Amino acid sequence: MFEHYRTFTYNLAGRDLTIETGKMAQLSNGSCLVRYGDTVILANATASAAPRDGIDFLPLSVDFEEKLYSVGKIPGSFLKREGRPSEKAVLAARVIDRPIRPLFPKDLRNDVVLSLTVMSVDPDNSPEIAAMIGASIALTISDIPWNGPIGGVFVGYVDGEIVINPTFEQREKSELELTVAGTREKVVMIEAGAKEISDDIMFDAIMKAHEAIKPLVDFINSIRAEIGKEKFAYASCEIDPAMFDKIEALAADDVRKALDTDDKRVRDAALKPVYERVYEALAEEYPDSKALIDECMYKLQKKIVRRWLLDEQRRVDGRRMDEIRPLAAEVSLLPRVHGSGMFTRGQTQVLTTATLGSIRDSQLLDGIDEEETKRYMHQYNMPGYSVGEAKAARSPGRREIGHGALAERALVPVLPTVEEFPYAIRCVSEVLSSNGSTSQASVCGSTLALMDAGVPIKAPVAGISCGLITEGDRWMTMIDIQGLEDFFGDMDFKVAGTKKGITAIQMDLKIDGLTPEIIKNALETTRKGRFYIIDDVLTPVIAAPRDDVSKYAPKMITTKIDTEKIREVIGSGGKVIQKICADTNAKIDIEDDGSIFIAAVNKDDAYKALAIIDAIVKDPEPGAIYTGKVTGIIPIGCFVEYAPGKEGLVHISKLDTKRVGKVEDVVSIGDEIKVMVLGVDNKGRINLSRKDAIGR
């Protein structure tokens, strides 16, 4: 039945990578089942027969589909089925999209969809890497035009050693989380999170990853040689050279004048009448060709900007190649938030707020990996007004999720531990104005906000981007790219870190890859840039985290109790802990290991809650003072609940400083009185005294 069924096996980092074809999903343009250990990914590549009308770009979709059955979980939603992709699924799709996209023909406009279904997950073998390899193979053996293949690996740094595709145990100890994709000749994609790794170690890790990728690409090519399909022919969507030449002759000088400014608003205003003149001049010869004219104008601007950069070493805003735009930093802009910081880089401006909460405010995760909660959350918003567009707000897209995750990854390595700072932390970066490099501005703004909030970060983190222009063997880099240099350039190489080392990297390419020389240059360029930002911009504004959190932030106290006592603190049906919270205006979170986190806006309330918990879990010591409630009266005294579920007896002789004839003359049921612990009798009963507590 499956006469075309084939298997191919390759040893990747000491484990078998097995590719199966010809059995499943045979109606796709290209399909394969990837087995890496017990991780199983079904990869399918499909393409439309023809482009849709009006499409002037490659409509590529990459879907990384997390199935909870892959880890033996039932979805927690009401519907009990997977809903919208998790943030991690979106990020995985982005990581796969970025190295694949530049290798499609520039004039292809057919819809292309990559569906990567996670069917089984082995913690030792990354489903993201297996999916990336599967996507590459599915495209390579399909009839879809594509200039691959690529390979991809994950890199760790464990005990001073660079490790390719580390196991789960190794990843837990690793100081580096690096994903690298590449062709046989070049590196196509880099994404990294690191615990302040030096530039040299990072470079060596990237190079070692590429060495591991080369034979993997050879393996994929061997599959293509056996079962690969012939690529289908497609109608090129390249613009008419004659139209472009006419537009260049007509408008080049005016476009140069319009582009020659550092103000995006001035540039856009100057270009508008140029477009109108071109439309009018070509209306008779090219009727109903406004979209094609727009594409020609775009390519004309691209040509001009690239020629300035390559031939004249000239940037649109007049800067040197190694010069950063004017920078500004501010803190404490919003009086009631827990911390705020605004970072401005030219016409790019980001305002970040930091909010502190109790540990129960940590984000719950329902995904296919081992992480179930997230204490630090970083979110990024880019509204329409930030680019001068009249666009209504929408839910976060892939861009917003990706940029938020990048900033989050950059800052996590410098955050204090839960033991050092027992708070959940949420940073929100609002892009107020955008002209390139907003993600790295959000890193800088977040550093300011965290320090303003009193979060004792280990060191300030700064982020900056490096651009690239290539032509044949010629290439040059430039620091701190603005919008036009991003649009018309070949690379956006984003690096964040402290002065000690790198904490995050994200590289976006529009060409077929980078050489080691370019990567090394980009790392050196961004290192100098982030040092400058930290020393000359961030620390002069706020040199160190505030000594204390905002008066509007919750005050946090931690303690740890015997796990056997947890039940007593919670009480039947949660009655005890609910009462403590109600009586003290505090939030209380109890971990399975006995760790207790108490949060209250008023520090006295937090300590009051702590005192009640201590009274519950600790044996009372003679001389200890408590405020308790009278729960019962007998002829010889009264019972006082000095802590939830804890009672003692105040003998009538210990009710007052003077002689008491009748207990009811001094106290009534429900009264709150202060008592001192006298001791515990031989039957375990606690003896209390109101008399000795008076005046204490």
Can you characterise this structure?
It is a single chain. This protein has 5 domains: 222 residues, GHMP Kinase, N-terminal domain (Ribosomal Protein S5, domain 2, 2-Layer Sandwich), CATH 3.30.230.70; 72 residues, Arc Repressor Mutant, subunit A (Orthogonal Bundle), CATH 1.10.10; 215 residues, GHMP Kinase, N-terminal domain (Ribosomal Protein S5, domain 2, 2-Layer Sandwich), CATH 3.30.230; 65 residues, 2-Layer Sandwich (Ribosomal Protein S8, Chain: A, domain 1); 77 residues, OB fold (Dihydrolipoamide Acetyltransferase, E2P). It is 31% helix and 29% strand. A hairpin with a 4-residue loop joins strand 23 and strand 24. Helix 1 crosses helix 2. The radius of gyration is 32 Å and the shape is elongated. It starts with 5 loop residues before the first strand and ends in a 7-residue tail after the last strand.
Question: What keyword list fits this structure?
Answer:
696 residues; alpha+beta; Ribosomal Protein S5, domain 2; Arc Repressor Mutant, subunit A; 8-stranded antiparallel beta sheet; 6-stranded mixed beta sheet; elongated
Q: What is the β-strand count?
A: 29
The portion of residues forming beta strands comes to 25-35%
CATH architecture of the largest domain: 2-Layer Sandwich
Query: For the residues shown, what is the average pLDDT?
Result: 92
Helix/sheet category? alpha+beta
What portion of residues is helical? 25-40%
Overall number of structural domains: 5
How far do the termini sit from each other? 90 Å
Radius of gyration: 32 Å
Helix tally equals 14
Shape by Cα distribution:
elongated
Largest sheet, spatial ordering of strands? 8-7-9-10-21-20-18-19
